[in-house]
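Most newcomers find our protein records easier to grasp once they have seen one. A learned vocabulary of local backbone shapes supplies the integers on the structure line. An example says more than a description, so a record of this kind follows:
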Amino acid sequence: MDNLTHSLIGAALGQTGLKKLSGLGMPTLIIAANIPDIDAACSVYGIQSLEMRRGLTHGPIAMLVLPVLLTGLMIAFDRWQARRGKRPEARAPVRPWQLLLLAVIGTLSHPAFDWLNSYGIRLLEPFSSHWFYGDSIFIIDVWMWAMLIGGIFWSRRAERRGG
């Protein structure tokens, strides 16, 4: 999936009510839904770097490590804002365990949706380099964008009205 879709999936997860579990819940879900794609930074090294894509950062070890790192960064960001006096008063308190849960959910959504497309994913890297393909949707799917954007818009509108 492309990163716009991953971001929209993170936002849709937040709109289900998950964002209310902790302060910084929505940004954590959106970032977590994209974080396995940090392997895209390898593309600056040329064609050989494509071997790194959808491998190690999409495998089981990364699914354990990345949410913990993201949670630590989000807690550090909240504390940094508080020290500077720039933390929004309206923001709910950051609850570390709930934030970790959100980071895990968002991070796990990434390989789940990458698996659905024809490019596939090496789900068991580094233990196995076997590619898994869902072959259900294209990497960029405008219909999925439309459904996610529509759902998020509808949910936010209802939220503003007290629903």
The chain has a mean pLDDT of 91. The helical segments are 3-15, 25-34, 60-84, 96-115, 142-160. The radius of gyration is 17 Å. Residues 3-160 form one domain.
